[in-house]
Q: What sequence folds into this?
């Protein structure tokens, strides 16, 4: 068997290593200057007034809802096809995650289904730019009353743009992730971006045990801080954001050129820019193709989860769009460093199942 092809690989090297070494030599491993430096670079990249870095994308989602004072008695609309963290944080705030179906072709929220799900208890919608494809923002805005907050789950959409506006700057508040499968990584990490100073203050308070200032704790909080060591990795990554996205666009192009006549390939709507967190195709017989790729040393994975198939959300009904997406979505090996020869090998194996 040939060497394996990894599902994902972070694009890190000498610059990140030197940045980490600098932090180690300083002795200030956490709660230091590198966190603020990373936050400033992130706010500039997204185009918001504020960016608060936290320990994970899940922490970012949790803190965003806490900052919005969402809790018991509230409802938050969540796509039925997404990573479970998007719904879990709603439940952990004491609110109810209300699942809504998705367009199986795009994986994104169905605006008409969102409109039908709104009740007097609806406080927010979790607008997930899944795998990096921007949500149809204007359609989503018109599907809910003005007082319902659109929370961007932009975990995989750093660098993506909707009609020229960066994802992460579309909503009142947005959440990012820096897991190693994301375009910019800190190993583990996340961030909350917003233009509203009050929301930013609340996020910073909740991430640091609830302290407003030392000795002043208006309410309890968590330890969702991110250390300087990890932010040091992210700073040179952010400086290369356009370069990293261009490399992913190139790899996506290789795949699309070879596969678009054979199965459903991903892409953004006209006028938008995809963030290319992952390259997820759709085909019948996905499980057979997945097993076949793995047998040939090609790491592949399902897209993500149909939430109504998981224990906490089984009672919410049928979601045919999410079912179809879950059963057909296949994530192929995808990274800035994926080579054209590797794409050819992946496609040659996948073609046996088409």
A:
């Amino acid at each position: 068997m040939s060497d394996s092809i990894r599902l994902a690989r972070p694009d890190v090297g000498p610059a990140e290593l030197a940045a980490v070494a600098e932090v180690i030599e300083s002795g200030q491993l956490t709660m230091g200057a590198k966190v603020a430096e990373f936050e400033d670079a992130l706010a500039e990249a997204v185009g918001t007034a504020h960016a608060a870095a936290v320990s994970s994308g899940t922490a970012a989602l949790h803190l965003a809802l806490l900052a919005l004072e969402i809790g018991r008695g509230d409802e938050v609309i969540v796509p039925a096809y997404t990573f479970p963290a998007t719904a879990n944080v709603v439940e952990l705030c004491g609110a109810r995650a209300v699942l809504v179906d998705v367009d199986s072709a795009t994986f994104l929220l169905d605006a008409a289904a969102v409109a039908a799900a709104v009740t007097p208890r609806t406080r927010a919608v979790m607008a997930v730019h899944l795998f990096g494809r921007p949500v149809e923002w204007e359609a989503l805005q018109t599907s809910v009353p003005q007082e319902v907050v659109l929370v961007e789950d932009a975990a995989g959409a750093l660098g993506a743009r909707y009609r020229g506006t960066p994802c992460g700057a579309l909503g009142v508040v947005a959440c990012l992730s820096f897991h190693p499968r994301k375009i910019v990584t800190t190993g583990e990490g996340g961030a909350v971006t917003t233009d509203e100073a009050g929301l930013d203050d609340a996020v910073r308070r909740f991430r640091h045990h609830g302290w407003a200032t030392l000795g002043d704790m208006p309410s309890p909080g968590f330890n969702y801080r991110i250390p300087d060591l990890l932010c040091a990795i992210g700073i040179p990554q952010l400086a290369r954001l356009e370069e990293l996205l261009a490399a992913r666009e190139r790899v996506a192009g290789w795949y699309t050129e070879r596969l678009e006549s054979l199965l459903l390939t991903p892409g953004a709507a006209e006028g938008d820019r995809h963030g290319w967190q992952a390259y997820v195709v759709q085909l019948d017989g996905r499980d057979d193709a997945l097993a076949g790729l793995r047998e040939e040393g090609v790491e592949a994975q399902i897209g993500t989860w149909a939430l109504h198939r998981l224990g906490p959300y089984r009672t919410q009904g049928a979601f045919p769009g999410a079912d179809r997406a879950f059963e057909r979505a296949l994530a192929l090996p995808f990274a800035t460093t994926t080579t054209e020869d590797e794409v050819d090998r992946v496609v040659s194996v996948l073609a046996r199942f088409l």
